[in-house]
UniProtKB/TrEMBL annotation:
Transmembrane region(s): none
UniProt keyword NAD present: yes
Active site: 286 (nucleophile)
CDD domains xref list: ALDH_F6_MMSDH
The entry's keywords: NAD, Oxidoreductase
Name assigned to this protein: Malonate-semialdehyde dehydrogenase
The keyword Ribonucleoprotein belongs to this UniProt entry's keyword annotation: no
Role of this protein: Catalyzes the oxidation of malonate semialdehyde (MSA) and methylmalonate semialdehyde (MMSA) into acetyl-CoA and propanoyl-CoA, respectively. Is involved in a myo-inositol catabolic pathway. Bicarbonate, and not CO2, is the end-product of the enzymatic reaction.
Originating organism: Caldibacillus thermoamylovorans
Recorded superkingdom: Bacteria
Catalysed reactions, as listed in the record: 2-methyl-3-oxopropanoate + NAD(+) + CoA + H2O = propanoyl-CoA + hydrogencarbonate + NADH + H(+); 3-oxopropanoate + NAD(+) + CoA + H2O = hydrogencarbonate + acetyl-CoA + NADH + H(+)
Length: 486
């Protein structure tokens, strides 16, 4: 029987499945049914200390393993992930709620991160200058930094950990993962498959839990760096406390992503893309479209088509055939979303599609139907806050300049998209919009393993982004050697 099949999850430390020392635990729910599918331990500082000590000791030998040998383990891991693709996707749907097709896509994103990391022998190559002065040469070598703490959110239980640990371990670091306590099962399966791929014990560890585990990682002197992905207030807290403890920290935070639809856009494409970006994964994506600024002249036509397509969405358990919109993660999150809908109405926005009225919203799981507000303005809370649910705000604008100016007033700057066929507009958008990830005629400028990924402003704290060469740099440090041949 696999670890993921048992009721109370265990931590994974030094290659062993270990019960947490703390007695505390929390139920893990299937959000589509409300059923308890497991219990997750809420570990304490002792558990963190144990995992970090093991990882710290293992680092001393793991860093000596030749890079191609470390990479070969990831090649095996990649094959195992491919072999278990359906199973992993199903597990994501069960614990997170997104539909199976989206979960399948998430597994693909995770696999791509492993594939990128398996290129470590090329990525780690340094640089030399044969002659910096007479008979003098210099070169740079790349080294791992030590124990990395990874803290991840509920919305991508596979992809987000895979932004971190494959690259971190292949470059010679050891890793302690603190998965979201709301979606902890997938992480354990990832660990089982790593073991099967031949990863030595202690290189990758998991400590389940919440705040105490995070604080334990942030304060432990043996942890060299923290990769965090989650909501804005927690990202800010993690960045401040981690850097105060003199660690390297990258903290990817919350979002309020703006899309702009210009009058010349292909409206069929724009509405399909925006519908997917706003309501896919129940709006629980850091790249979800949450505000759409539409040029006045086409706003009515755009809205009519969008609502028409939205009315065709099937809501339900993501494992069932044809379901597009699954539940939000928890009952409390559903309640919070319903409150935001109420707030939007009270603020004077026009509720043109009310997801509270969908039949599914009355069911046992945590469903909220797709909700659309028109005539939303920047002084409204539904414009300002990240709702992280299937709620879309439409703002009417007279032109591109106004749309850009509006978007740039948000404190968040994760992603932004434009829908147009005009090259000059695209250039103006690219040059003036505040956001780290841009899309043209697409709804979700998704993170790709090969490119850096992150937002600006309050959507990111740190310097080096996740993924791509930024990820490589974050998990390594350099030595420059200067040699005179005498
Ligand atoms: P969250 O901030 O509640 O939790 C993230 C992690 O932090 C979890 O592991 C959690 O246990 C821990 N945590 C929560 N509160 C804490 C506290 N007070 N002190 C210490 N640790 C704490 O986020 P979530 O609800 O799991 O995920 C959704 C959020 O993540 C959204 O805001 C979304 O935009 C963001 N997100 C951002 C990106 C990105 O790339 N920028 C990607 C995915 C998700």
């Amino acid at each position: 029987m696999t670890q993921t099949a048992v009721k109370t999850l265990k931590n994974y430390i030094g290659g062993e499945w270990i019960e947490a020392t703390s007695e505390k635990q929390e139920p893990v729910y299937n959000p589509a049914t409300g059923e308890v599918i497991a219990y997750v331990p809420i570990s304490g500082e002792k558990d963190v200390e144990r995992a970090v000590s093991v990882a710290f000791e293992k680092f001393q030998t793991w860093k000596e393993v030749p890079v191609p040998k470390r990479a070969r383990i990831l090649f095996k891991y990649q094959q195992l992930l491919v072999d278990h693709w359906d199973e992993l996707a199903k597990l994501i749907t069960i614990e997170n709620g997104k539909n199976f097709t989206e979960a399948y896509g998430e597994v693909q994103r995770g696999i791509e991160n492993v594939e990128f990391a398996a290129g470590a022998p090329s990525l780690m190559i340094g640089e030399q200058l044969a002659s910096i002065a007479t008979d003098l040469e210099s070169g740079v070598y790349r080294y791992p930094i030590g124990v990395i703490g990874g803290i991840t959110p509920f919305n991508f239980p596979m992809m987000v950990p895979c932004w971190m640990f494959p690259l971190a371990i292949v470059t010679g670091n050891t890793f302690v993962l603190k998965p979201s306590e709301r979606t902890p099962l997938l992480a354990n399966r990832l660990a089982e498959l790593l073991e099967e791929a031949g990863l030595p014990k202690g290189v990758f560890n998991i400590v389940h839990g919440a705040h105490d585990v995070v604080n334990g990682l942030l304060d432990n002197k043996k942890v060299a760096a923290i990769s965090f992905v989650g909501s804005q207030p927690v990202a800010e807290y993690v960045y401040k406390r981690g850097t105060e403890n003199l660690k390297r920290v990258q903290a990817l935070a919350g979002a309020k992503n703006h899309s702009i639809v210009l009058a010349d856009a292909n409206l069929d494409n724009a509405t399909t893309q925006i519908l997917n970006a706003a309501f896919g994964s129940a709006g629980e994506r850091c790249m979800a479209a949450s505000v759409v600024a539409v040029e006045d002249s086409i706003a009515d036509e755009f809205i009519k088509l969008l609502v028409q397509k939205t009315n065709e969405i099937k809501i339900g358990n993501g494992l069932d055939e044809g379901i597009f919109l699954g539940p939000v993660i928890r009952e409390q999150h559903k309640e919070r979303t319903l409150q935001y809908i109420e707030t939007g109405v009270n603020e004077g926005a026009i509720l043109i599609r009310d997801g509270r009225r969908d039949e599914a919203a009355q069911r046992k799981g945590y469903f909220v139907g797709p909700t659309i507000f028109d005539k939303v303005t920047k002084d409204m809370k539904i414009w300002q806050d990240e709702i992280f649910a299937p709620v879309l705000s439409i703002a009417r604008v007279s032109n591109l300049d106004e749309a850009i100016e509006l978007a740039n007033q948000s404190r968040f700057a994760n992603g932004a998209c434009i829908f147009t066929n005009d090259g000059r507009s695209v250039r103006k958008f690219r040059e003036n919009i505040d956001a780290g990830m841009l899309g043209v005629n697409i709804g979700v400028p998704a993170p790709m393993a090969f490119f850096p990924f992150s937002g600006w402003k309050d959507s990111f704290y740190g310097d080096l982004h996740a993924n791509g060469k930024d990820g490589l740099q974050f998990y390594t440090r350099k030595k420059v050697i200067t040699t005179r041949w005498v």
